[in-house]
Design a protein that fits this description.
The complex is a heterodimer of chains A (371) and B (271). Chain A is of the alpha+beta class and 371 residues long. Chain A is built from 10 helices and 20 strands. Chain A folds into 2 domains: 4-223, Rossmann fold (3-Layer(aba) Sandwich), CATH 3.40.50; 238-346, OB fold (Dihydrolipoamide Acetyltransferase, E2P), CATH 2.40.50.140. Chain B is mostly helical. In chain B, 76% of the residues lie in helices and 0% in strands. Chain B has 12 helices and no strands. The longest helix of chain B has 41 residues, at 53-93. Chain B is globular and about 75 Å long. The chains are: A alpha+beta (371), B mainly alpha (271).
């Protein structure tokens, strides 16, 4: 038992500290996604698990074994790179069987595994080609094939789909989910595509500047982000933020003077200079009335959704996601309302003030979320 | 471009080519003449190409030195590459303290003119009892070419995407296996290019061979130089020997040409 455990791992390149004291426990068979802004250390952290990057301090355990000082070749991991990293001088067949041949597996076993992988990934007709004679999607499949034939302890993916076009990316995403369902092998996956993270992960690690901000299930990240960074990072379009101050009677005074009371937020948890966050899809809108009145500056019509950028005097610009909406256009006046139970409140250190809700209230919130 | 313009350009080009190749043409012709025809006035323009006495005389007396040259050249090229390729691969892919310093330091040894090492080398080999041996020449030629060979090979190993090397290591390769199964095949054109340069250097080297050999291990360039004496210059033998001397580099280069061309332009165009 035991998937991958990182204990107080740090990494510095020269003087620059990139990974700062990370503790992480990935369960056996789990699909974990690393997300975070560019340069936050996602790839570095992944490469530290593989051993391609040495840790500056801390320990790495794989399947309960301390692998900190082991070479990448002895960790029995497989990796799929963004650039595919196929061996250009050998055929697809030899690429897929490369690791097996290095470990001197018997010929029949190699043949069996290669033909199984080729069948699973639809590569049967391409086995004798060289990698450069394949399309990007086919090359990526070969890279995945090379990874699965070795029955690794865990798979490492570093943005494997980001070089593919949108349609292919969706298709490969589904295939990877299916692959995980059938193999039940631990997978660690780096991406900066929100949809990939939300749809594929059992749990998501949100990284920022070499630290873990939150490690939780996708829904938990969306519903209860621990701080303003996670709240802003998960979800698209981004959550709207409005600065606020505590007011009398457990109320919160938004920057434009609007008073709201968020259920479950106690006055003693409030600080000065708070931030109230509301997701674009949770804002209620109407032609007649609401908390705020503003002008639609831009209407981004996607057909399925309309994204309305609304300029509100005293608040600034706020994004509204109106599902299937056709009746609001640029230049018009719009009224917005903040559903109180949908509001996230962050203190002056940007940490979320968790609502201390009674059981009855929690029930309502859960029901609303699942709706 | 008009036709007459074109013709003018061709004539100019031919003229320039003639100037550059004149010595070689003269030598090729002289190799088939006897000594009096070489000095004849008016000149004998076209010799009798079936006249092979010069070659016969030359080879019957000096074939073992030609053989020395072949052994020394192939040996030096092989030894040099055997050390340069792993060294270059290591310098590119290993991370260790002082790596850049080491790489620069290797190159800096190239800045010393070979002649500066001639006397010390003479003394070293003299003490070791290795003067006038093929082995000493192989060591010296391989050694002198190592910095250059390492540096050029490094640039070819650097052109291999880092991920490909990493993929091999994750797939279970040791450094040695990564080098053999992935890096060497991908650096093929680089290896062809570097070994051609080393080959030509070793084949044509005269100065150190003059210093370090006397009878047994004499190489062919030394033989050629011995045809020009204080009292007499044997033009017919020099010419015949030069033709033999320039053939192997041409053949070797032609064999490697396909790889060299792609090697020298590698990295200029993507893929
Ligand atoms: N070999 C290295 N030497 C020095 N700095 C490095 C090295 N590798 C990475 N870094 C630095 O470490 C930081 C994290 O890099 P990393 O590649 O892990 O980011 P990332 O989260 O994967 O970003 P991206 O989303 O752009 O891929 C970056 O600031 C980068 O400049
Ligand atoms: Mg990265």
């Amino acid at each position: 038992m035991g998937g991958i455990v990182l204990e107080n791992v740090c990494k510095s390149f020269g003087e620059v500290s990139i990974i700062k004291d990370i503790n992480l426990e990935i369960q056996d068979g789990e699909f974990v996604v690393f997300v975070g802004p560019s340069g936050c250390g996602k790839s570095t952290l992944l490469r530290m698990i593989t051993g391609l990057e040495e840790v500056s301090s801390g320990r790495v355990f794989i399947k309960g074994q301390d692998m900190t000082d082991e070479k990448p070749s002895s960790r029995s991991l497989a990796m799929v790179f963004q650039s595919y990293a196929l061996f250009p001088h050998i055929s697809v067949r030899d690429n897929i069987s490369f690791g097996l041949r290095i470990s001197k597996a018997p010929k029949e076993l190699i043949e069996e595994k290669v033909s199984y992988a080729a069948k699973t990934l639809g590569l049967e007709k391409l086995l004798d080609r060289k990698p450069r004679e394949l399309s990007g999607g086919q090359q990526q499949r070969v890279a995945i094939g090379r990874a699965i034939v070795r029955d690794p302890t865990a798979f490492m993916f570093d943005e494997p789909l980001s070089n593919l076009d949108a349609a292919l990316r969706v298709q490969m995403r589904v295939e990877l989910i299916r692959l995980h369902d059938s193999l039940k092998t631990t997978m660690v996956y780096v991406t900066h595509d929100q949809v990939e993270a939300m749809t594929m992960a059992n749990r998501i690690v949100v990284l920022q500047a070499g630290r873990i901000e939150q490690f939780d299930t996708p829904v938990e990240l969306y519903d209860r982000p621990v701080n303003k960074f996670v709240a802003g990072f998960i979800g698209s379009p981004k959550m709207n933020f409005v600065s606020a101050q505590p007011a009398a009677d457990n109320q919160i005074r938004l920057v434009d003077g609007t008073l709201i009371s968020v259920p479950g937020i106690a006055h003693e948890d409030m600080t000065s200079n708070m931030t109230v966050g509301i997701r674009p899809e949770h804002l209620e809108y109407s032609h007649e009335q609401g908390d705020w009145c503003g002008t639609i500056v831009v209407e981004e019509q996607l057909g399925s959704d309309a994204f309305l950028i609304v300029e509100i005097p005293g608040v600034g610009s706020v994004t509204v996601r109106a599902v299937g909406e056709r009746n609001y256009h640029g230049g018009e006046t719009i009224y917005l309302t903040l559903p109180r139970h949908r509001c996230h409140v962050f203190d002056n250190h940007d940490n979320r003030i968790s609502p201390n809700l009674s059981t009855q209230c929690t029930g309502t919130v859960t029901a609303l979320h699942s709706a | 471009m008009t036709k007459s313009n074109n013709r003018l350009a061709v004539i100019a080009a031919l003229f320039i080519t003639l100037i550059f190749t004149a010595p070689i043409i003269w030598m090729v012709l002289a190799a088939f003449k006897n000594i009096s025809d070489i000095y004849a006035i008016p000149p004998v323009w076209i010799p009798d190409f079936s006249y092979l006495d010069n070659f016969v005389l030359l080879l019957s007396e000096n074939w073992q030195y030609l053989l020395n040259s072949v052994i020394v050249t192939l040996g030096a090229t092989a030894v040099c590459m055997a050390f340069a390729l792993p060294a270059a691969f290591g310098l590119v892919n290993y991370r260790f303290k002082g790596r850049n310093f080491l790489a620069d330091w290797i190159l800096s040894t190239r800045m010393m003119p070979p002649i500066a090492a001639a006397v010390p080398l003479f003394m070293v080999f003299n003490t070791a009892g290795m003067l006038d041996t093929i082995g000493s020449l192989i060591i010296v030629y391989a050694g002198f070419n190592l910095p250059f060979a390492i540096w050029v090979s490094m640039s070819f190993f650097r052109n291999i995407p880092k991920e490909i090397i990493e993929a091999a290591r994750i797939e279970g390769c040791t450094w040695g296996q990564t080098f053999r199964t992935v890096a060497l095949p991908l650096a093929k054109s680089g290896i062809a290019t570097v070994s051609t340069f080393v080959f030509i250097f070793a084949w044509n080297e005269l100065l150190l061979a003059l210093f370090l050999t006397s009878r047994e291990a004499k190489t062919f360039p030394v033989v050629i130089s011995s045809f020009s004496t204080v009292t007499k210059t044997y033009w017919e033998l020099i010419s015949a020997a030069t033709i033999i001397q320039i053939l192997p580099p041409i053949i070797f280069t032609l064999l490697m040409q396909k790889h060299i061309v792609s090697g020298l332009t590698m990295g200029a165009v993507k893929n």
